[in-house]
């Protein structure tokens, strides 16, 4: 019986971009193992970028003492649904980080994180499960980030910011720092648009765009 099976759940762009990160993560930790793609749209096994791709049901019945899966799905609601399914099936969430990811002092990152190349997480930070930080993103000191939060490439999250569950921060967005007594808050499920400059707290469930960021009104 194989000791541990590793897989990336999702073989679309997100999953294919994270597969090289997952490979170097295993190599850095001295683990030699194949990594599967899991794709529920597959009728039969195939090969994607040199890795065997199978359905979740196929992966679930493979014999091993332990299974670890990184969920590489951009949609945070789908990530949560899949994380719950893995938990029910006693399959653990897998966290991966690139060789040049920087994590400093006192950073607590929950399971299922995907930290792409050139990501920096500085000091005294708490991050929830299944966090996605894409290329060149950073999280500065004293931030609290909830579950299933997504950073697109180049996000600048400065100090004393609280980001609640399922928030999405678009490419190149800048979030102004808060203060210890008054952190800047990005509410649950909020979307910060590409290139937005956020200078004040964002309510839950809204989309903000522009510089300075303003709520995008629905027409």
Automatic annotation (TrEMBL):
InterPro entries: AcTrfase_PglD-like, PglD_N, Trans_hexapeptide_repeat, Trimer_LpxA-like_sf. The active site is at 141 (proton acceptor). Residues 7-86 form the PglD N-terminal domain. Pfam families: PglD_N (PF17836). Keywords: Transferase. The keyword Transferase applies. It comes from the Bacteria. The record marks 142 as: Increases basicity of active site His. GO terms for molecular function: transferase activity. Belongs to the transferase hexapeptide repeat family. NCBIfam families: NeuD_NnaD. This is Acetyltransferase.
